[in-house]
Specification:
With about 100 residues, this protein is α+β, with helices and mostly antiparallel strands. It has one domain (about 5-90): HU Protein, Chain A. Helices cover about 40% and strands about 30% of the residues. It has helices at about 5-15, 20-35, 85-90, and strands spanning about 40-45, 50-55, 60, 70, 75-80. The strands form 2 sheets. A 3-stranded antiparallel β-sheet has the order 1-2-5. Strands 3-4 form a two-stranded antiparallel sheet. The protein is elongated and about 55 Å long. The two termini are about 35 Å apart. About 0% of the residues are buried.
Length: about 100
């Protein structure tokens, strides 16, 4: 599913037009991005948690000639799925424990 398909699905299921669905999605993405830039975590219960981690400097290899290169440290966005999302993806959604 791409962004346009997601907007169409949101519009259809929420009974709103596509421009409002697009605005809602864009605002959601911008809000998550702003929180991550500020160093905050974003937790959507049942869906997952977005966070920022620091990847340390490391040595890599140039694929063309095999020479060693230094890769600088940087911040990366991470996502950890929530239990409900993980269960849904694995086909366990809606099942009750015995």
């Amino acid at each position: 599913m791409n962004k346009a398909e997601l907007i169409s699905a949101i519009a259809e299921k929420s009974d709103i037009n596509k421009s409002k669905a697009a605005a809602a999605l864009d605002t959601t993405i911008a809000s998550i991005s702003a929180a991550l830039r500020a160093g905050d975590k974003v937790t959507l219960v049942g869906f997952g948690t977005f966070s920022v981690a620091t990847r340390g400097p490391r040595t890599g290899r140039n694929p063309r000639d095999g020479s060693k290169i230094k890769i600088a440290a940087k911040k990366v966005a991470k996502f950890k799925p929530g239990k409900k999302l993980a269960d849904d993806v694995n086909g366990k959604g809606g099942k009750k424990k015995k």
